[in-house]
Amino acid sequence: MLDRRNIIKARELAVTTLKEVIYNDSFSNEVIALNIKRIDKIDHNFYRQLVYGVLENLYYLDHIIEKLSSIKLKKIDKNIINILRIGIYELKFLNNENYASINEAVKLAKKFNFKSKNFVNAILRNFDRDVEQLSKVNIENVDERYSIQYSVNIEIIKYIKKYYPNYLEIIESFNKVPSFSIRVNTMLISKMDLRRKLELLGFTIRESKISKDSLIVENAFNMTELDEFKNGLFTIQDQASILVSEVLNPSENSKVLDLCAAPGSKSTHLLQIMNDTGMIYSNDISKNKLNKIKENFERLKLKNYKIINFDATEYIEDFEGKFDYILVDAPCSGIGVIKRKPEIKLKKSLDEINALSKIQRNILSNAYKYLKKGGIIVYSTCTIGNIENVDIINKFLNENNDMKIVKINDKDYIQLLPDTDNDGFFICKMVKN
Ligand SMILES: C[S@@+](CC[C@H](N)C(=O)[O-])C[C@H]1O[C@@H](n2cnc3c(N)ncnc32)[C@H](O)[C@@H]1O
Fold it and tell me: Which PANTHER family match (predicted)?
């Protein structure tokens, strides 16, 4: 039961959530999951809409505030700037009564920093008087303009532009609502039977065009509360991510290593594909994520797994030549999942991408040593652009002559872009001759 005294309003919680995500480098989905219990269920969607709406449009909202504020943005109190961002977002993008949005913002300003109430009131009222004019982004340089308009770090814009002629569609897609897909636990139920069960509960379901164990739920709502979820009949996972384990496709009774496994979506899927035979070793560097992997194996009623914990950039002698299949689902910049984690488009830089590529290269070259002759590696990331993907593979193949590409649908690799129904993913399969 929710303690009524702890119920705070969506806007107030959005202010502090934004502070955590923008200034403390936390992930929006994690902070939201942690905080959302503090507000009434009826406010959950509004709270999410405010947090995601502000993050998705952060540079743009700041651009507008800059035009209206006599104080430099950096000098404004962090809670107050977030109240302003929420206020401008509501006035520009939502159909709420404008006077109500402004009044609520002023009330919040009083609560967080009493002196700033007039400042907040003046900025929001001035914006409300001339929304159309003040909403324009008059910047000549195209990259800079897109950076503000779509709230994407300019380095990311230039990076994407370099590889994809349709880069604008990709950038525009960052603010779209991602589709919601689930992975059927085919060890416990057939896809058809699960589909029927969910349809009887009122969900609208369609098939995925890219992965066979996926179903897409059009009107997903509180899916983790369903008995079908609690009893392990399905997992919530994007269809592109589901495709990764389908590409690796380990045989029954094989020995599999998942080097970057948390929270275990792909590990559990791999074991499911093996009909819970053989053994999967699920590793992650992060100790506090290991429990989540265990929880997932348990909920899905899978048994043949071992959870291990080491830094995959370091070589483990004991593993030399021991595995039939290895998954390197590498830590990456995550440009392919910006629709779910909008802060990525604000925070990721080219330097970080380059730094990640070194880790990715290290992990993959260790994976090579752990693979048996005839064994298979899948290298995947949830990002786009060459540095973390094709460049890694090319270098790896140059260094290891006995590794050969295994084509996937006649292609050397799959690069799914995020301007579609699914997340952006890179998947490449290789065999050791
Ligand atoms: C893309 S996520 C993996 C998602 C996972 N495969 C799944 O499907 O649920 C990358 C993971 O790599 C882990 N990681 C990052 N650096 C690592 C390293 N040096 N060694 C092992 N794991 C690492 C992170 O903690 C994170 O959980």
Answer: NOP2 YEAST -RELATED NOL1/NOP2/FMU SUN DOMAIN-CONTAINING, RIBOSOMAL RNA SMALL SUBUNIT METHYLTRANSFERASE B-RELATED
For 265-319, the DSSP string reads HHHHHHHHHTTT-SEEEEE-S-GGGHHHHHHHHHHTT--SEEEE---TTS--GGG
CA angle, 180 as apex, 177 and 181 as ends, to 5°?
150
Q: Is the CB of 280 under 6 A from ligand 1?
A: no
Q: Yes or no: say if 151 and 56 are a contact pair by the CB < 8 Å rule.
A: yes
Mean pLDDT, to the nearest integer, of 307-335?
98
CA nearest ligand 1 atom 11, residue: 260
Q: Rounded to two decimals, what is the model's pTM?
A: 0.94
- Return the residue matching tokens 């992997």: 293
The residues that bridge with 427 in the sheet, in sequence order, are: 380, 414
The tokens for 21 are 């995500």
Distance 52 CA to ligand 1 centre (A): 24
Query: Which residue puts its alpha carbon closest to atom 1 of ligand 1?
Result: 331
- Give residue-wise pLDDT tens across range 337-372: 999 999 999 999 999 999 999 999 999 999 999 999
Q: What is the ipTM of this complex?
A: 0.99
Could you tell me the two tokens for 98?
A: 């404008």
CA of 292 to the centre of ligand 1 (A): 12
Q: List, for residues 17-74, the tens digit of each pLDDT value.
A: 999 999 998 999 999 999 999 999 899 999 999 999 999 999 999 999 999 999 999 9
| Digit-coded pLDDT (tens) for 189-217 | 999 999 999 999 999 999 999 999 999 99
Count of Cβ atoms closer than 10 Å to residue 45 Cβ = 11
Catalytic amino acids? 382
* CA distance from start to end of the chain: 59
Cα–Cα distance for residue pair 158/147, rounded to 1 Å: 10
Distance from C-alpha of 288 to C-alpha of 286, rounded to nearest angstrom? 6
Alpha carbon 52 to chain centroid distance?
Answer: 13
Please indicate whether residue 275, judged by its CB atom, sits closer than 6 Å to ligand 1. Answer: no
By three-state DSSP, how is residue 235 classified? strand
Query: From the CA atom positions of the chain, what is the Rg in Å?
Result: 24
